[in-house]
Amino acid sequence: MARSTLNRCQLKPRAFTRWLVGEMKEQKLLQKDIAQIICVSQQAVAKKIEKNTFSYVEMLMIFEDLETDRETQIKVLL
Q1: How large is the average pLDDT for residues 10-20?
Q2: Would you tell me how many other CB atoms lie within 10 Å of the CB of residue 54?
Q3: Burial class (CB in 10 A: 0-12, 13-18, 19+), 1
Q4: Residue 20 CA to its chain's centroid (Å)
Q5: pLDDT of 74 over the 80 cut
Q6: pLDDT at residue 12, as a whole number
Q7: Is 69 helix (H, G, I), strand (E, B) or coil?
Q8: Please, what's the b/e burial string for 24-34 (b: 16 or more CB within 10 A of its CB; e: otherwise)?
Q9: Per-residue CA distances from 59 to 1, 2, 32, 50 (Å)
Q10: Using an 8 Å Cβ cutoff, are 34 and 45 in contact?
Q11: Are the beta carbons of 52 and 46 closer than 8 angstroms?
Q12: Quick one: pLDDT at residue 1?
């Protein structure tokens, strides 16, 4: 299978943030829980949610910790 490459412009950080907020409500997670996953403060998570500034690596860490299936990951990111 051919490997496709993504550049940062192709990712949709707003879609990720909307998905994350929904997951937090559904799973009753707090910003501090997300902060522990990506090793930052709760305040940093609040700012990342407000400004849609999660890095690709942080998104992957969150997907992994929340056991998000690949199909959902692709839908959220592309």
Answers
A1: 84
A2: 21
A3: exposed
A4: 6
A5: yes
A6: 72
A7: coil
A8: beeeebebeeb
A9: 24, 23, 16, 15
A10: yes
A11: no
A12: 43
pLDDT tens digits for range 17-67: 999 999 999 999 999 999 999 999 999 999 999 999 999 999 999 999 999
Q: Which two tokens stand for residue 21?
A: 């907020």
Residue 78: the pLDDT is 85
DSSP string over 6-65: --GGGS-HHHHHHHHHHHHHHTT--HHHHHHHHTS-HHHHHHHHHHT---HHHHHHHHHH
Query: Using CA atoms, how far apart are residues 4 and 62, in angstroms rounded to an integer?
Result: 22
The two three-digit tokens of residue 47, written as one number = 């700012």
Report the first-to-last Cα separation within the chain, whole angstroms: 19
